[in-house]
């Protein structure tokens, strides 16, 4: 059985589309007819409409340079890191080992990463981290995480780990998270 072509009495698609478009009546949510739009547009032409100005770049001066001590009124740009973080082997950090004993492996790694990434981000922005650290001993399994990091810290970290800007985003995010944990373990 083959495909049957429509007969000559069947209108072409563009004719149907045009016919349906003229017969269609606009109705509001309550079913009442809606007044049609005037043929001539009122107001400025569409090209003159502006949606919103582009946001200003984040201020990179530190609080010490500004001379203020309170919370900043400007919002800082953040980058979301999505990565697979592997579980560290036991004995790398006493704090992590105690957290695993108390909270379990997954929760302990999530809690450690939250603290580690915040401290690592601050250290990157302050210039305390100048090189990539050796990876910690890890197992083959891990957890997928999604963590926010400041754009300034991310820029410095990506310059350390991917100076040629060739790494996939997930690999770069994983390297940043692993280095944050190593940096955190060395200080706790």
TrEMBL record:
InterPro entries: Ribbon_hlx_hlx, VirC2, VirC2_C_sf
Start and end residues of each stretch annotated as Disordered: 21-75
UniProt name for this protein: Uncharacterized protein
Any one GO BP annotation for this protein: regulation of DNA-templated transcription
Top-level taxonomic group: Bacteria
């Amino acid at each position: 059985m083959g495909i049957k072509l429509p007969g000559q009495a069947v209108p072409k698609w563009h004719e149907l589309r045009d016919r349906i478009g003229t017969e269609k009546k606009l109705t509001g949510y309550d079913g009442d007819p809606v007044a049609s739009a005037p043929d001539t547009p009122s107001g400025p032409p569409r090209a003159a409409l502006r949606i919103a100005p582009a946001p200003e770049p984040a201020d990179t001066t530190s609080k010490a340079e500004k001379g203020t001590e309170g919370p900043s009124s400007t919002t800082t740009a953040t980058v979301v890191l999505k990565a697979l973080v592997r579980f560290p082997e036991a004995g790398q950090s006493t704090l992590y080992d105690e957290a695993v004993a108390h909270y379990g492996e997954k929760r302990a790694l999530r809690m450690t990463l939250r603290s580690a990434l915040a401290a690592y981000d601050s250290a990157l922005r302050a210039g305390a981290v100048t090189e990539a650290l050796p990876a910690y001993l890890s197992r083959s399994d891990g957890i997928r995480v999604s963590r926010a990091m400041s754009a300034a810290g991310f820029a410095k970290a990506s310059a350390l780990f991917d100076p040629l800007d060739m790494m996939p985003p997930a690999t770069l995010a994983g390297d940043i998270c692993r280095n944050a944990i190593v940096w955190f373990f060395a200080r706790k």
